[in-house]
Amino acid sequence: MKKVSAILCALALVVSSASAQDKSVRFGIKFAPNLGFFHPDTKELKNDGVRFGYTFGLMGDFMMGANQNYAVSTGLFLNNVGGKTTFPYGNENLLTESKYQYIEVPITLKLKTNEIGYMTYYGQIGFGAAFNIAAKSDFDWPDSTGKVVRFSGEKITDKTNLFKASLIVGAGLEFNFSGNTSAMIGVTYNNGFTNILKDKKVPVGTEERELRAKQNYIELSLGVFF
User: Fold this and answer.
1) Alpha carbon distance 223, 226 (integer Å)
2) Consecutive sets of 10 residues in the chain, 226 residues long: mean pLDDT of each?
3) What does R_g of the chain's alpha carbons equal in angstroms?
4) Among residues 78, 73, 86, 93, which one has the least CA distance to residue 31?
5) pTM for the predicted model, two decimal places
C-alpha cells in the first residue's frame, strides 16, 4: 500500500504541473470516505450491514472540444471497501466481515453547468474497472470439533475474483478559489455488477452451494483540481 500511495503522489505532482499549461485538461487529487455493502446473488447469503472504507488518488477531466460543460472524467484510485454478510449453518447464522483493496480506473461522462457565482454543479455517469490487490476477512466458522469460532484477519485473495466492474452515478459541485484551482464535493454511488467471490462454497443440506455477491458502495467525494 505504501508503494501505491507513493506512485499516486508522484503522478499527482507531474500531472498537476502539466494541467496548469493546458485548460482542456484538469487534474486533481481526491479523498472519499465510503460505506460499502454486498448485494448477494445467492439466496442463502444475506447482507448484514455496511463497512466503512475510503478511496484516494488522482482524478482528471478531459474537456470535449472547446465546450467546458462536457468532459470525460477518469482517474487512478486506491479503493478500500468492504461489507458484512451472514449465511445459515445448521441452526446458526455465521457472520463474515470482509475488506477488499482495489486499484480502480473509472471512465465517466461529466456534465457541468456554467459557473454561477463561484459555483459549478455537475452530474456524472459511467463505468468503473477495478483490480483486486488484497482481501482479508473476519468470519465465524466451525472448528474441528464442530464448535463455531471466530477467525480474524484471514487472507482471502485466492477466494476473490481479480476483476470487478461497476456502474458509477454521481453529482456534486465545485467552488472556484482562483484561476484553475477549485474545490470539489460530491456524492457517488458505485454499483457493482460482477461477482467478487471466487470458488466460495458452503454446505447446504447434503450438497455444497456456491456463494455469489456484488460489491456496492456510496462515497462522499472530496477533492481539489489544480
Assistant:
1) 10
2) 52 46 83 97 89 97 87 97 88 89 97 92 97 95 83 93 97 90 96 92 74 95 95
3) 20
4) 78
5) 0.85
pLDDT, residue 6, reads: 52
Rounded (10°) CA dihedral 176, 180, 183, 185: 90
The residues, any chain, with a CB within 8 Å of residue 226's CB and separated by 6 or more, are: 16, 19, 20, 26, 27, 28, 180, 181
- What sign does the CA torsion over 226, 23, 116, 128 have? negative
Distance in angstroms (rounded) separating the CA atoms of residues 65 and 46:
47
What local confidence, expressed as pLDDT, does residue 77 receive? 98
Contacts 24+ apart (CB under 8 A), 10-13: 11/58, 11/76, 12/58
Answer yes or no: are the C-beta atoms of 121 and 136 closer than 8 Å.
Answer: no
Q: How far is residue 43's CA from residue 40's CA, in Å, rounded to a whole number?
A: 7
